[in-house]
Amino acid sequence: MRNKFDEQLKRLHVELIQMGAACEDAISAAAEALLKGDESLVPAALEAERDLDRREREVENLCLKLLLQQQPVARDLREISAALKMISDLERIGDQAADIAELASYVRVPDGSGVLHIADMTRAVIGMVTDSVDSFVKRDLDLARAVCAADDQVDALFDQVKRELIDMISSDAAWGQQGLDLLMVAKYLERIGDHATNVAEWVEYSITGVHPSNN
């Protein structure tokens, strides 16, 4: 019985890794479509988001089977419960990436102001998503906590992009609508960082039995 449980648990890890990879694909395609003005990349981001929706349902079904059929002990129960919470955040990351991709269809990114730090935000949140899933699979508490700490960097980058866009609009009011749309892109990236942090916090719970919000 335990051997079957361990096999299904390994499958859960694989599915989560694949969800994390789909998140990375969605964010990368959406950001590249925006920053390079390449609308041909938009469908890739939207397809990755649909893939995440499908994978969320599959992982949810797997978790329910593990809970109902295998009678997990306390540590296993925490791991499965955490996975159920994590997949919701991973799916939301896909939604945020799709929102960016949709904006990329008509938003023009100006040369200079705002471009560099939106790219920096993209790289930072992709790293957070990757590390949050890795920390779960590896049961690496330090890596999970590093993800939570990295959210401060993303928040600081968001503030920087916001200042850059305010300066851009102040110097040329014609950029008003575009500036607001780019601010929305930065906000979506900031929210992706928040979701990755949520994943990492559930990893900490699965390892320690204590959610950071309760500390």
What does the model show?
This protein has 215 residues and is an all-alpha fold. It is 85% helix and 0% strand. The radius of gyration is 19 Å and the shape is elongated. It starts with a helix and ends in a 7-residue tail after the last helix.
Overall SS class: mainly alpha
Number of helices: 6
Proportion of helical residues = over 70%
Largest sheet: none
Query: How many individual β-strands?
Result: 0
Which H/E pattern describes the elements? HHHHHH
What fraction strand? under 5%
Distance between the termini: 36 Å
Unreliable stretches covering 5 or more consecutive residues = none
* Mean pLDDT over all positions: 89
Q: What's the alpha carbon Rg, rounded to whole Å? A: 19 Å
Shape: elongated
Q: How is this fold's topology laid out?
A:
Elements: H1 2-36, H2 42-69, H3 74-104, H4 115-138, H5 141-171, H6 176-208
Helix pairs in contact: 1-2, 1-3, 1-4, 2-3, 3-6, 4-5, 4-6, 5-6
Which structural traits does this protein have?
single chain; 6 helices; 85% helix; 215 residues; mainly alpha
